[in-house]
Amino acid sequence: MKKMILRKTISKEAIKEMPRTSFPGNIYVIQSAIEAEKAIAYLQTQPIVGIDSETRPSFTKGHIHKVALLQVSSIDQCFLFRLNITGLTQPIIDLLEDPGIIKVGLSLKDDFMMLHKRAPFIQQSCIDLQDYVRPFGIQDKSLQKIYGILFEEKISKSQRLSNWEADVLTDGQKQYAAIDAWACLNIYNLLQELKRTGNYEVAADIKEEEKNLIISDK
């Protein structure tokens, strides 16, 4: 099998040319404590999950909203916990504190800082992809760029600044939220497989004049 060549970095221009990725599984919007309990019961059967969170953007200086949404995804099921409606319930806290379930995300320090403002808990068994990708030679730190390097697909960011406390989440918001958690899991699973097989190599640095040529060609 041909070795996978891992780029160290990727340009925004290169990502724009890639096909857009989409979440292929089922998305469940969780808006009650009972729904949260059922969702967590399923997620606790998974050894590894992807996680992310969304907060309503504030356009007023000094005003910050509490985290509105927590996304937790298996490979084919994603649950969107509407924390602005339910709060951070005990079953969700139990999942975050469970040492037997690996939680994979990106820039997790920021996510947990926001979640801790809703309730105290001690997260366990967490993997931050910004640290995890370094041994593979990947220098980019954004989810969009890491995913582009590994899968040659584009994660759309068009919904990032939408209202995550809206009465009803749009289909676009649900897709965006699910993809961010699911993509983290996809990245981790692929890197684990590459680590196991050793079937990859880090791309050589591109000379400066070649970089300029590539940019001018576009």
TrEMBL record:
Keywords: Exonuclease, Hydrolase, Nuclease. Residues 27-196 form the 3'-5' exonuclease domain. One of its GO terms (biological process) is nucleobase-containing compound metabolic process. Pfam families: DNA_pol_A_exo1 (PF01612). This is 3'-5' exonuclease domain protein. It comes from the Bacteria. Transmembrane segments: none annotated. One of its GO terms (molecular function) is nucleic acid binding.
